[in-house]
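Translate sequence into structure tokens.
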Amino acid sequence: MTENRIKAHPILIDDSVADIPFYWQDQTFLAKEGEMISSALMANGVTIFGHHPKDHSPQGIFCANGQCSQCMVIADSLPVKACMTAVKRGMRVFPAEGLPKLPDVQPLNVPANHPTPKYDAEVLIIGGGPAGLSAAIELGQAGVSTILIDDKAHLGGKLVLQTHRFFGSSEAVYAGTRGIDIAKKLEAALRQYDSVEIWENSTAVAVFEDKSIGVYQGGKDYVLVHPEMLLMATGAREKSLAFPGNTLPGIYGAGAFQTLVNRDLVRPCENLFIIGGGNVGLIAGYHAIQAGIHVCGLVEAAPECGGYKVHKDKLVRSGVPVFTSHTIVEAFGSDHVEKVVIARVDKNFKPIPGTERQYDCDTVLIAVGLDPVNEFTGQAERVGLPVFSAGDAKEIAEASAAIFSGKIAGRKIAGFLGKLTDEIPAEWAAIEEILKSRPGEVVDPNIPELKEGVFPIMHCTQEIPCDPCATVCPRHLIHVDPSDIRHLPEVDFFAEKGCIACGRCVAVCPGLAVTLVDYRKGNENAFVTLPFEQDPMSVAEGDEIELTSTEGMSLGKATITAIKKIKGYANGTSLLSVEVPREIAKLVSGLRIIETSEPTPFEFDTEHPETLADEAFICRCERVTAGEIRALIRDGVRDINQIKAVTKASMGACGGKTCLNMIKRMYLAEGIPLSEVTETPVRPVFIEMPVRVLANLTDEGERA
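Result follows.
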């Protein structure tokens, strides 16, 4: 039996034991308490959960967030999403192959059902991520009657997947703290308020004309909530990408990958390729390395990665090749991804024939942007229910910005309800703008000419909102403009009381972009201290490591002279010291962690590139290709409802959550403005749920 569990991790510690037996096609597997079926299957080496009834193509996990239906299985005779259904002791799970055999049913005399329970609240918050939690804290402080619902077992949203330290303001949004710990801090702050009721494992499924919200509560009951106001903190769903092979098992969204690796400590692959150079893709790549997974490359279609440069630097220092102005052309594999083909793109983002390269990999991570989850917002507006949005549901930005967005939304709602005791501070809006700002231009590094003493080197060369290094220095030698923390840090190298080599700035930096250079030995060499956030058991004093510059250039090998941790910053961060020649000391930024991959030979048919692109699937549920939809668009179809009628696109189990936005992008690619396109209405129920629950049938009424 293959067990793909992460046994060693620099940050995450999991003492739980897989001791819950369940069955997959009559084979006994073991799961952890509360583990989702999908993660348990992946941990046991199962990547194919079923086959599509239309073309028998293999189906596996894709989003791990309940947004698609790729992971559908039959569990104890019921079709369920494996990523949203916990394993139960003795559960019998089978692939979702065609239609399940229905059990014999006795005729019902009188269906027994209960009236739908109803709840009143001044505010209903949908989403328990950073924005929802922050808003609920503000409402709790104001004594507002609030219900907060989240569809997961643990609050925090995507924070529970983030093991890195956060950027932003140390004072305002916990910068310098890991995302997993920020989630715990926000939840603890919220639970002290009695006016806020928290419903975990609860999903909002509809907004109705009477301004009520249907909620699938606790995975077993259906209730109606009648709020005076609604706050949407539902976050975002990942954009997808159309390319041949895009539905093979092993093609993941970044959130699915991080869910498996960082939440469930499941090792889903050995050799990863990443599509997308925003923060999501860059961070996920480093998370993969921390989990002991080889990252063979990353492509970004734009000329530069859109994420923070310090995140990109962490990858290139480690040995990951990053290809800008490149895209994926095709993924190959029989029942799972085996190879990926990339190519350079022109100024119109079209692949340039003859530039193709092929890489061996077993997983492709798609991180090409996010779309707000806003179906509920539009419906609430249509029925006249006062609605606010916060976080990614309002505007796609970093989680630190979502925290502040939620704080502001909570205060605004309390004000509308007449329960605001304190005015919203005038500077909050400015702070929010700073936190959600795009990264600035890259500038030349500020390398001091000092050749004696000890001092930090700041390897960050791009303005981003970040100040932890300035808040931890005991001598206050590092300065970040408090009025605008996007400014790069400045170091006072000539202070009367200089650096004491405490290492705090090295340990706390979210970008791992600070090193210490120590010339005090007075010989031909210098000592450099650099951060290390990999498996601490993988290095030891006396080991030889390959040092790299910020841009990933090899600076030769050196021997580790010391390994230490800094009190207060020891959770996952070690400081490695090496002795190097003086002339390279200031250039040392990191160390090579993985072996750089090389492309394999590949012959590409360049005569019919559009035909190849036509093979990509747009609608995963109904297996509708890009070619089918493109043909209808070129035939003059300007109503997405017509596309639905002809192809069944968006009519599958996921309700168009992935394909509808892809269809809109296809119109734009054909030069057709969306103002000329009739969109299809999105009707409740937005999230699927069992009919027996919707009808509130009792067990007796369900099975007379």
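Note: The domain at 118-236+375-435 is CATH 3.50.50.60 (FAD/NAD(P)-binding domain).
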